[in-house]
Amino acid sequence: MEILLAIVTGLLYGAGLFMMLRRSMVKLIIGLILIGNGANILIFLLGRIAKGKPPIIPADAKVLTELYADPVPQALILTAIVISFGLQAFAIVLFKKVYQALHSDDLDTVNTIDDDL
Amino acid sequence: MTSNLVIVPVLWQFLIAVAQMFSWFNPRLQRKLSVSGNVIQVLIASWLLTEVYRQGILTMNAGKWPAPFGIVFVSDTFSAVLVLITSISGLAVSLFSLANIVEARMRFGYFPIMHLLFAGLNGAFLTGDIFNLYVWFEIIIISSFVLLTIGGEKPQLEGAVKYFTLNILASTIFLTAIGVLYGLAGTLNMADLALKVAAIPNKGLVEVTAILFLVGFGIKSAIFPLYFWLPASYHTPPAAIAAIFGGLLTKLGVYAMLRVFTLVFFEDPIIDTLMIILAGLTIITGSLGAMVQTNVRKIFSYLIISHIGYMVIALGIHTELAVTGAVFYMIHDIVVKTNLFMVSGLLYRVQGTHHIDRLGGFYQYYPRLSLLLAIPLFSLVGVPPLSGFWPKIDLFKAAYLEGGSFITICLAFGTVITLLVIARVWAEVFWRPAENLPERPNFRFWHLFTLAEKIQYITPIALLSAVSLIIAFRAADVHRISQKIASELMNPKNYIQTVLPDKSAEQQ
């Protein structure tokens, strides 16, 4: 499971970066989404994966001694998902506005401002 | 000491934003709320600083969950001073917005978003939890995206594309770094991390994590090779918004670096060398960039980059003297850079252009105003006895005694070029004879302004100039505070003990 997730994380980061380096704005958004998901899976993976081990301390013990499913990374991922959801929504609206202003999906055309006042 | 005062600066800004959202269709009320709210914010921040000065580091455990299990807010002298400086700059920007931001922008929620940005800044300065720092960073960048695009003019949208993409990338890298650090240490509390990271046997992994943090914060604070978003976007929004960005947002990245690389990570020669090289190149490329630009705001944008290098290079030297210089420089730089962008807004109002070849005659027509504008411009260069001079003493001393010739040369190069650039701005904008005003039908020039609007433009510039004069003439006091901050940063034992009273007792 760890190996699989590690490969998935690497693929998501790689694909995301590749998409961000393309010239199309839509691909840029897709790249951002992929990298964000890669980061989430990375956090999940680094929190150690334990199946069917809830973090509940037995009545006769004071601390957990065995490996347990750490709830902190899950809380982190939830927060990160919510944040990236908001940012992606903003990104889509922003790029739509840019497209309306420039009539072009090409990022290389987004530099008409250098000769302004 | 536990005290709920720590969270008050964040909550207060948040409350102002909420109150303004309830008066969404009433910009007049929003303006009053913003200015009066920021005056009270300055008082709260001063109160926090005096309490921290008297009682030492203050902490607040959210929900009374003891650290490291809950989120903890910590205010040491560094945080408290930055909250105060942010509040003062915030007050100035708030005043400047009254006349600089047109009512149409205010109707789209300019003021509430601005206060959310300040809430985020205060939160980032005060938090003691690294994931919480990430969340505050996100609040700040979301607010800054809205501020940058509000109004939706074409140049703003174009600048926003670059700003948005690179800042999101920086956040993702920061998040990745947090994930890796959590995997290594199993905690998010910065004081707890300081103890646990030092005990990790695999130093290579720690180094990689540190570099991830350096890249994440490096994009935010615009260090060499990661700064290209800054000059592409900072000259597009109205001057008041550019003032918040130029003064505060890049310095937040530097704050995060100073905090993380002194508290969480132990001193590492590789990271320090990397930082010195990158910061040195930041100074050189930033100041060379400023020399070739002709747009006043782009010149100031490149000067921001150049001066970020001063602080990062001092962190790379990693001694108490150097950090004193960095902290002192940061206090001076926030005030002066905020002021500079407001000055650019004023110049634009007078001549209807940002282009240095078409500006001119300022001294001829407005001699008294020119004297006022001389204060921020020459403070930036560090002409004695103005405020830029004093932190540079520490920086040069540290570079000469503890750094090496490369650092000294970079600092000297940056200073000389800054002097050249400001001299050029002064000669072109103030001394050169004026040209005819351009024909702009829908543009209200300075001489058509009412007295009230002129006062709204000049008061914030005068306020921040006065603050930088206070920094200059009370340099001994500011230096003493910076020294205290540096010694707290370089010896984090006290910080750790205050945040984690039980753990430190266990270790002894």
UniProtKB/TrEMBL annotation, chain A:
Q: Which organism is the protein's source?
A: Schleiferia thermophila
The molecule here is called: Multisubunit sodium/proton antiporter MrpC subunit
Keywords (alphabetical) are: Cell membrane, Membrane, Transmembrane, Transmembrane helix
Cellular component GO terms held in the UniProt record: plasma membrane
Family the entry assigns = Belongs to the CPA3 antiporters (TC 2.A.63) subunit C family.
Kindly give the membrane topology term recorded for this protein: Multi-pass membrane protein
Upper classification of the source organism reads: Bacteria, Pseudomonadati, Bacteroidota, Flavobacteriia, Flavobacteriales
User: What PANTHER family does the record tag this protein with?
Assistant: ANTIPORTER SUBUNIT MNHC2-RELATED (PTHR34583:SF2)
Where does it live in the cell? Answer: Cell membrane
List the InterPro entries: CPA3_antiporter_subunitC, NUOK/Mnh_C1-like
Q: Which Pfam families match?
A: Oxidored_q2
Automatic annotation (TrEMBL), chain B:
Say if the entry is tagged with keyword Transmembrane helix: yes
Q: Where is the signal peptide?
A: none
Q: How does it sit in the membrane?
A: Multi-pass membrane protein
* All copies of domain NADH:quinone oxidoreductase/Mrp antiporter transmembrane, residue ranges: 129-418
Q: Which InterPro entries match?
A: CPA3_Na-H_Antiporter_D, ND/Mrp_TM
Q: Which Pfam families match?
A: Proton_antipo_M
- What keywords tag this UniProt record? Cell membrane, Membrane, Transmembrane, Transmembrane helix
Please give the chief subcellular localization of this protein: membrane
The terms describing its cellular component in GO are: plasma membrane
KW Membrane (keyword) present: yes
Q: Report TM segments.
A: 6-26, 69-96, 108-127, 133-151, 163-185, 205-227, 239-258, 270-292, 299-317, 329-348, 369-386, 406-427
Q: Where in the cell is it found?
A: Cell membrane; Membrane
Top-rank taxon of the source lineage equals Bacteria
Family assignment from sequence similarity: Belongs to the CPA3 antiporters (TC 2.A.63) subunit D family.
| Record-given protein name | Multisubunit sodium/proton antiporter MrpD subunit
Species of provenance: Schleiferia thermophila
